[in-house]
């Protein structure tokens, strides 16, 4: 079968690269992301997220973020023949893997907007406002009381818009998403979120929000986490493709992308264990009769098109 180029909007490799010395070339126990696996799966564009752990006791949120950004730049410098920052003229046929540095949980900003300028200079081009807990910026999808964005959260969205850092709505509460959409006209996206009206999960997104993201030219990166896919204890590629088809059929093929969350889960779909299995998604889409042009958009083109607005 044909091998499609792949773009992945989210992985958590940097957290372990900074804390556990994960090396993209040499697999360690529990490590998911490796260069060999990315090549096997024909990955051409990979987002690397710097995730702030709010429960970390030994390093400040800012130090965590900087440590992961340093790990990202070390990875690029040590593998300059393979990795390259994503640019509007990047050609997936080049044989290189383009990268985007993102932030998951802007707690690492430590309520100082000047840190966003620093993050931008360090290469950050996308960011979520929060993770699973309520922060000084916003309520999360896991918050007991949804209070949306705080005043600082709205100011942060305005600053992200000014810097041209893509606002990532993953993990954000419903009111928080509404507030972002009211605060900025910029196209927004969600790096790893599924469709709540198809399969209920508080971490997934309502149809009305997906519709507005699509209208603005943003994308939804379908997540591989089994609890967002199925009631069963194991998920499969078919479960991921069910969400892809649901979003594509309701809101158009142009708004669907992939957001694996590799290295961010403790259990992966049985036939989608790592980047080397990414072509299984394309093969399942082919099996269901989707046209090649649509598959190319979902697997790579939509996310690449979206990010060209920010690099």
How would you characterize this protein structure?
- The protein has one domain: TIM Barrel (Alpha-Beta Barrel).
- With 311 residues, it is of the alpha/beta class.
- The radius of gyration is 18 Å and the shape is globular.
- The strands form two sheets. Strands 1, 2, 3, 4, 5 and 6 form a six-stranded parallel β-sheet that branches. Strands 7-8 form a two-stranded parallel sheet.
- The model has no long low-confidence stretch (mean pLDDT 97).
- It is built from ten helices and eight strands.
- Helix 8 crosses helix 9 (279-287).
- Helices cover 36% and strands 13% of the residues.
- The protein has helices spanning 13-19, 35-40, 61-78, 114-121, 151-163, 174-183, 207-215, 237-251, 279-287, 292-307, and strands spanning 6-8, 43-51, 83-85, 97-104, 124-128, 166-168, 220-223, 256-259.
What is the count of β-strands? 8
* CATH level-3 fold name: TIM Barrel
Order of helices and strands: EHHEHEEHEHEHHEHEHH
Strand content: 5-15%
Global mean pLDDT = 97
**Helicity range of the residues?**
25-40%
The Rg value, from CA coordinates, equals 18 Å
- pLDDT < 50 stretches: none
- CATH architectural type: Alpha-Beta Barrel
- What count of structural domains? 1
Provide a count of the helices.
Answer: 10
Largest sheet: 6 strands, parallel
Give the full name of the CATH homologous superfamily.
Answer: Metal-dependent hydrolases
Taking the alpha carbons of the first and last residues, their distance comes to 33 Å
User: Could you say which structural class the secondary elements and strand pairing correspond to?
Assistant: alpha/beta
According to CATH, what is the class? Alpha Beta
- What characteristic shape results from the CA principal axes? globular
